[in-house]
Amino acid sequence: MNNRDSLNKPLSRNAMAYVLAGGRGSRLYDLTDKRAKPAVHFGGKWRIIDFALSNALNSGIRHIGVATQYKAHSLIRHLQLGWTFFRRERNESFDILPASQRVSENSWYLGTADAVYQNIEIIESIAPAHIIILAGDHIYKMDYEVLLQQHVAQQADVTVACVEVPLAEASGFGVMHTDANDRIIDFLEKPADPPPMPGRTDVALASMGIYVFDTKFLFDELRRDAANPDSEHDFGKDIIPGLVRNGRAMAHHFSRSCVRSSKEAEPYWRDVGTVDAYWEANIDLTDFVPSLDIYDQSWPIWTYTEGTPPAKFIHDEDGRRGLAVSSLVCGGCVVSGAALRRSLLFTGVRVNSFSQVTAAVVLPDVDVGRYARLTNVVIDRGVRIPEGLVVGENAAEDALRFRRTDKGVCLITQAMIDRLDTH
Fold first, then answer.
1. Residue 1's pLDDT is what?
2. For the segment 195-238, what is each residue's pLDDT rounded down to a tens digit?
3. What start-end ranges are recorded for coiled-coil regions in this protein (predicted)?
């Protein structure tokens, strides 16, 4: 249940959320050819970064900075359209911080820590007491006030938010080895033999890429790190391991601050960094009771909302009936004599007559031609699917034409479609 109502909320109003949103997201392949990973569409209406930003807003934080770097135009445009309602006269701020060579004429952001260091002057002008460093590329709902409360109560140098992951999967994460009091005694980056949690043999604590610092303390650490020629200037590789060895680093369990509605059985956190994980997290939303409750009005996910007409379903005859079963269909979509099953259609998609679309994640402004049969696909924005195209029924053929994952999901882009016409 939502655990925020019984808490006082003073700390969040004097804190700043600093979102690291410059990641390439290379494991998403063609989906990040033109956009940074935080700008990738998710869930029908949102971009991935909207979840971290909404958590900050809903937690009471009114000062937010977003550091951008890799292919940032789509992300910056989204932030300008959807997140510029913060007002200075209300003691609020929202700063988009592209890599701009503020410190050196020949260096962009060298690492995650450097992405904060280069903007120290801007942060000092806001003068927050605490800074929460956030990754801009995960899907979750979290009350950062609970995290701040723990950080202050335990007088930590840094508090690292952690999620419990099965021990068998933990080697893919940065793992926190803690004592019985949640003090971090070792930090292991993608260990072959990850240590389990105290008292639990089946799970490990993995870093969520969320860190809380007292602002002055962080600035001192960043300046020291910037002067070290051997550092990679990265939180996960340099700052956090150093504080584990020489400071007071504490772990915060995501289960304590996860915001859940009555319909969410387990704390929900997803790294949608691969095509399979991205497809699964979107398709999961079509379940009868999804693991993530996107209908929870007590903790809304904010975004830029386009003015679109309602979705439309037309034609009602055998073999040509506009219908959708266990599917999410956004505004501006037209399902014209086609059948959708367990699929998610973003804004402005048109699916034409006699087509069958199953287990598909279809990004905005896609047009699916007549008689197409598409199964287990992710279709990039603006793609024109030719008439009669069949995907998801012949693995060998799919692998030759599209980017097919080990789990059988095909990523389809317009460039791949255009190559079909040349063969």
1. 43
2. 999 888 899 999 999 999 999 999 999 999 999 999 999 999 99
3. none
Q: 316 near 334, Cβ under 8 Å?
A: no
For 229, the 3-state DSSP assignment is: coil
Contact 387, 369 (CB under 8 A): yes
Query: 371 labelled as ligand-binding?
Result: no
- Helix or strand (DSSP H, E) at 212: strand 203-214
Taking only the tens place, the pLDDT of each residue in 294-333 is 999 999 999 998 899 999 999 999 999 999 999 999 999 9
Counting Cβ atoms within 10 Å, is residue 362 exposed (0-12), middle (13-18) or buried (19+)? buried
Main-chain dihedrals φ then ψ at residue 17, nearest 5 degrees: -95, 125
Name residue, tokens 């893919």.
Answer: 172
Tokens at 339, concatenated = 């059948």
Instruction: Establish whether 141 is an annotated binding residue.
Output: no
Q: How many CB atoms lie within 10 A of CB 287?
A: 11
Residue 30 Cα distances to 62, 357, 398, angstroms:
34, 21, 16
DSSP characters over 287-332: SSS-SS-TT-TTS---------PPPEEE-EETTEE-EEES-EE-TT
The residue-averaged pLDDT of 351-365 equals 98
* Backbone φ and ψ of 87, nearest 5°: -125, 130
Residue 190 is labelled as binding a ligand: yes
Residue 207 marked as a ligand binder: yes
Alpha-carbon distance of 103 to 94, in angstroms, equals: 21
The Cα 120–Cα 14 span in angstroms is: 17
Angstrom CA distances, 110 to 49, 107, 182, 219, 234, stand at 21, 7, 31, 17, 8
Q: Which range (104-108, 196-200, 264-268, 348-352) has the least confidence?
A: 104-108
According to DSSP, residue 392 is labeled S
Establish whether 174 is an annotated binding residue: yes
